[in-house]
Amino acid sequence: MNSLYECCVTHCRLKPQRHDFTYQVFMLGIDLDDLPSLARRIPWLGHNRFNFFSIDDRDHVALGEPGGIRPNLVRWLSDQGIACPPDARIQLLTFPRVFGYGFNPVSFYYIRSADGHPLIAVAEVVNTFREMKLYALDVIGGDGLWHRRVAKNFYVSPFSDPGMEFEFRIGLPESQWRVNIDVHDGSGRVMLTAMRGNQHSLTSGRLLWYACKYPALSLKIIGLIHWHALRLWLKRVPLVRKAARREAQLDVMRPHSSLNQHQP
């Protein structure tokens, strides 16, 4: 269940101006119960401590309470009316911090029963304000993917109104892994995001190789976000001010001061 996924990520904006780009990344896929022992066994991986690559509990399920990723996720699911069996296995697919710096635009949780039956998937979306919002998916379609179309209610980008909708299609992390996240407005799809990954064993040697191949993973992700935001601005794609759409930003974790309703 513990693995690495080398991924190709594609973003394609369809309107009001077409804009697309593709890049390569890798993600860690880790059983949360195994995380402490993996961090002790693999020299280049840390858990809540500095290392070349690390996973920090503070980057995930930001409920403002201590306890770690698993109990906070279970608590959040309970708040949504979703029961998680005590013996369930939870796998996290995420971008690690690199030399202590990290930015995770999206992470995924896969909850399975003790015998491996898939129960729930959760997408954890983070914006550049470091705000966070979680979306639970508990329906698997005939194509073997979790499906859900839901109001974003989250400010992901200044070029995307938070009142639009996400359409998630999320696959199981197996030998090959796929995710599609489309953004819809009232007239159809606005933006398409696709992730395609191939599974590799999580070993000290491969992680060291990825340290050479992706030495600035976190900086690459945040840098691409800002570079392509500049290009959209130069294309005169309309901007949506965050403070102007407070009412469409709901159930946000780590809310930014722009969501303070008493601000002018």
Characterize this entry briefly:
With 264 residues, this protein is an alpha+beta fold.
Describe what you observe in this structure.
The chain is α+β, with helices and mostly antiparallel strands and 264 residues long. It has one domain. The protein contains four helices and 13 strands. A ten-stranded antiparallel β-sheet has the order 9-8-7-5-2-1-13-12-11-10. A three-stranded mixed β-sheet has the order 3-4-6, covered by helices on one side. Strand 12 and strand 13 form a beta hairpin. The longest helix has 18 residues. The termini are far apart. The mean pLDDT is 94.
Secondary structure layout plus pairing:
Blueprint lengths: L2 E11 L5 E13 L3 H7 L3 E3 L5 E3 L13 H11 L9 E6 L2 E2 L7 E7 L5 E9 L5 E6 L8 E6 L13 E6 L5 E10 L2 E14 L2 H10 L3 H18 L30
Parallel strand pairs: 3-4
Antiparallel strand pairs: 1-2, 1-13, 2-5, 4-6, 5-7, 7-8, 8-9, 10-11, 11-12, 12-13
* Whole-number total of structural domains: 1
> What does the radius of gyration come to?
18 Å
Q: In percent, how much strand structure appears in the residues? A: 35-45%
Mean pLDDT metric:
94
Q: Which regions are unreliable across 5 or more consecutive residues at pLDDT < 50?
A: none
Range of helix content: 10-25%
* End-to-end Cα distance: 49 Å
Please tally the β strands and state the result: 13
The helix-strand sequence is EEHEEHEEEEEEEEEHH
Number of helices: 4
Largest beta sheet: strand ordering: 9-8-7-5-2-1-13-12-11-10
Global shape: globular
- The chain-level structural class is alpha+beta
- Report the sheet with the most strands, covering strand number, pairing sense and barrel closure: 10 strands, antiparallel
Name the quaternary structure: single chain
